[in-house]
Write a structure and sequence with these properties.
Layout: E1 4-10, E2 20-23, H1 29-41, E3 47-53, H2 57-70, E4 75-91, E5 101-115, E6 126-127
Parallel strand pairs: 2-3
Antiparallel strand pairs: 1-4, 3-5, 4-5, 4-6
Helix pairs in contact: 1-2
């Protein structure tokens, strides 16, 4: 591939829906979290879909977990899929008589749907909201009385001055 250079990338990308957030590697997590919370709380949406591809899959999961921690009543449905990315490579030197190459790669993607309404619980990737644990009255821990330890290394000299 040292004799080729990448000319372009072709993807089939549909237009984003109103409740969809596409996560890129350059976006900041706190900005994405506030955008998702804003859609769920103030924009009147009952659900939001977080989508990430390639290296941004881990960031997508992080955003979903933070949003679920702030709104614990959310249902989650996760889908992992692969999308085709077509790369076009052309020769660097026209005198070498090389053909233009088209390479199709499989790019991992993740789609996480967070909803205030119950989702299909039989679907693979479904997670129910966490149940709130009832707090039991905390018992004060009884601590053991500490005994002073003997100082094994003394700084005083035991030799009497002469």
């Amino acid at each position: 591939m040292e004799h080729y250079e990448k000319k372009g990338v072709r993807r089939n990308v549909a237009k984003a829906e109103d409740n969809e957030i596409r996560i890129s590697g350059h976006a900041r997590v706190r900005v994405l979290v506030s955008r998702a919370l804003g859609k769920l709380q103030s924009d009147g949406h009952r659900s939001v879909v977080l989508k990430g591809e390639g290296h941004s899959c881990t960031k997508t999961i992080s955003v979903a977990e933070i949003v679920k921690r702030r709104l614990p009543s959310l249902h989650q449905n996760t889908r992992i899929l692969y999308s085709d990315v077509e790369e076009v490579w052309s020769p660097k030197d026209a005198t070498m008589e090389l053909d233009e190459l088209e390479v199709v790669r499989k790019l991992p993607s993740i789609h996480i749907a967070l909803s205030m309404d119950p989702l299909d619980s039989s679907a693979d990737g479904y997670q129910a909201p966490k149940q709130k644990k009832k707090k039991s009255p905390s018992k004060a821990k009884k601590s053991k009385p500490t005994t002073p330890k003997k100082d094994t290394f003394s700084t005083r000299s035991t030799v009497a001055p002469t």
